[in-house]
Amino acid sequence: MLSNIFIPPSILKSFDKNQESAVSVCKRAKYFGFKKIGYGAYTETYANPNYSFVIKINLTSDPAAFKFYSMIMNTKSKYFPKVLKLKSYVDLGGNFLFIAFIEKLYPLNWDTWKKANKDGRGFTNWLAIQDSYINIRNITYKKLGKAWESNNTAEVKIFSSIVSATSEFSELDLHEDNLMMRLPEGDIILNDPVAPLI
Questions:
Q1: How far apart are the C-alpha atoms of 159 and 137, rounded to whole Å?
Q2: Which of 25, 81, 112, 193 is at a distance of 20 to 30 A from 43, taking alpha carbons?
Q3: Higher pLDDT among residues 169 and 163, named by residue
Q4: CATH code, 6
């Protein structure tokens, strides 16, 4: 159960210290046995096989992502990652950065897609309607996406509110790499769907 994901107090306390830079944060994650498993333009993600959470470390100021994680912490939507803890700090260069402790999810690929539940597939098809960059295995998505939308109006409102709240400094960033899988449930998760305006 997600509510039972345990973060050792020693790890949390360590990240409570004043942070000199994102580099020092990454070193701290490695000290606790976490290894880099993914990265993007603004973050790196670290995981330890002994824990059911990952540490997402912000490398460059990204107010859109911080706003996104702040908002989904207060929603019970199953379509977004569960943020367990969110810490922010100002580094020595004056940059506002954050550290997010998030449930461990799995990449969406052909093998994991086979495990997606019907609702997750509907959600993916609905996202494809919003942005043509998402097209998993050339799925005919319009009909299935519209069906999902009609059955999930509350979730559509949550998605719209996140896009609206971050639009001042971001744009919609929907692509396949931002889709993850929650196992064994088979839920499709939308992770970090906004990108800073350049």
A1: 24
A2: 112
A3: 163
A4: 3.30.200
Task: Confirm if 136 and 159 have CB atoms less than 8 A apart.
Answer: no
- Token pair for residue 25? 């944060």
> Contact 191/180 with Cβ under 8 angstroms?
yes
Q: How many CB atoms lie within 10 A of CB 34?
A: 22
Give the range of the structural domain holding residue 134, as residue numbers without chain letter.
107-196
- Let me know whether 112 and 192 are in one domain: yes
- Of 58, 74, 104, the last residue of a domain is 104
Angle between helices 142-151 and 153-166 (to 10 degrees): 100
Are 89 and 17 in a shared domain? yes
Residues 39-93: tens digit of each pLDDT: 888 899 999 999 999 999 999 988 888 999 999 998 889 999 999 999 998 888 8
Point out the domain boundary residue: 71, 104, 137. Answer: 104
Query: 8 with 95, same domain?
Result: yes
